Here is the input.
Amino acid sequence: MIVEMDRGASEEQIQAVVSRAESYHFGVQLNRGTDKVVVAILGGDTSRVSTEVFAVLPGVASVTRIMRPYKLASREFHSRPSLVDVGGVVVGGERLVMIAGPCAVESREQLEQTADYVLSAGARIVRGGAYKPRTSPFSFQGLGDEGLDLLAELRSTRRVPVTSEIMDAYQLDAMVDAVDLLQVGARNMQNFTLLRAVGQSGKPCLLKRGLAATVTEWLQAADYLLASGGQVIMCERGIRTFEDSTRFTLDLSSVAVIKQNSHLPVIVDPSHAAGHHRLVPSLARAAVAAGADGLIVEVHPDPQNALSDSLQSLDFPSFGHLMQELDAIAKVLGRSF
Ligand code: PEP
Ligand code: MN
Here is the structure.
């Protein structure tokens, strides 16, 4: 339920709403906007209480029952688009953000070469997996702590924000010191204990869409992060369908749906959706046209010898060319990279 206070409602009136919610053992989150306060009443069972319970209190302008099962991520709760600061790079504004880098950190040389190239071509955040969620336990699992150290080193020598995937809450302390944006992967989208831990960490989260998650479930996962005090960037990366000519089916409708129903920024990962480097540019161009706030793209200095996701990684010239095309599309929409 969303309780919208009157413009100029007193602190006492706001606290009366909070106390009443607490008397029903509901959670509460306050959103103090520039000219009015909105109180979100949280709990899976708010339907047991009538909206009148809050509507009768002085200073309450309206009470809306949220039909959608997500609250904090909704536009009703926060009408203006949220901006997320990633180590000084703002995601969600007019300027689009390109995040690029290797699927996995393989060596200092590989990471530095890739970062230097993608940054020179217009990327503003570098990606690189240290702990990799591989389908088979016999595949390359990432360099682990060593990979994280290499990312932290790059971040300080290049003064660039970096992102990497967190697979388990035990990695949190080390990752908070090393990266600017914690990526929660598709396979962990509904790992609720991890989401809570990431939400409490003070670092923003890049929340990938689960392979078989609806947009609503994905926004509910975002609510876990927001309810724990986190900031969220949504990332569409393709879903499992009957179609097998691409690795996953890139559901670009979700970009429009999120823009309509949520205040959260949304970016697109064309690499994992496509599964093939030849398809990546087309999906990337479409994502910008659909209104995404940015992209995350896998790039490797020598894709043929990459230790993970080699087929979908772009080489340097392809990435450079793609950035030029994306720039042109962004301009048509009144945006830029
Ligand atoms: C990745 O970004 O390398 C990755 C594993 O992504 P996803 O969780 O979307 O599969
Ligand atoms: Mn990958």
User: Anything to note?
Assistant: Residues 131 and 142 are 5 Å apart (CA to CA). Residues 103, 129, 133, 185-187, 208, 237, 269, 272 surround phosphoenolpyruvate (ligand 1) (CB under 6 Å). The longest strand covers residues 27-32.
